[in-house]
Amino acid sequence: DGGITQSPKYLFRKEGQNVTLSCEQNLNHDAMYWYRQDPGQGLRLIYYSQIVNDFQKGDIAEGYSVSREKKESFPLTVTSAQKNPTAFYLCASTNRQAPRDYGYTFGSGTRLTVV
Amino acid sequence: AQTVTQSQPEMSVQEAETVTLSCTYDTSESDYYLFWYKQPPSRQMILVIRQEAYKQQNATENRFSVNFQKAAKSFSLKISDSQLGDAAMYFCAYRSTFYNQGGKLIFGQGTELSVKP
Q: How far is residue A89 from each of residues A27, A85, B32, B83, measured CA to CA in Å?
């Protein structure tokens, strides 16, 4: 079955360390998104990509970086510049080439904790 | 920029009763999509219902229906015959139809719904 796989499910980061969250989809979707979820703040967009080798900053991109070298993969790196990275991270994808709204598929998320 | 506001952080409903979750949004666009997503304790995002702005008819999916008031920029979700499995965080979301907006979903803060047996 097609879907989005996020790994790991839980991740612990030490102060000053970079960590990378994986997001892989086998849906042949062209667009992929990273959201951060904090209590009381909903989901906020970090980065998104509509095609391979291209991506745009979302509302809270500072301290994060991404790459889109393959259509299936959109990894998110949380750098040491992100001062408060403890949060739940969700990856999503959709087919932007489809007529009208195609729907979104979400991963099961990664819980990142700073230790 | 578009914004979505959910003013009810928490709601509670008795099993088998009806509850309405509120959502307001701000946009200058005339064509867009609105969504309600459910996030149970598993944290998996589940689409509940979707509304296209150009359609005047309110969307309905079984026990879930919306009251879409375009002029008032209001998009409330009504859950009828509430069930214990409806307990979850509910998010309202907006999406522009303009391609240069990237297809991104803009979410509200969420409403935590509890269902009492």
A: 20, 10, 26, 28
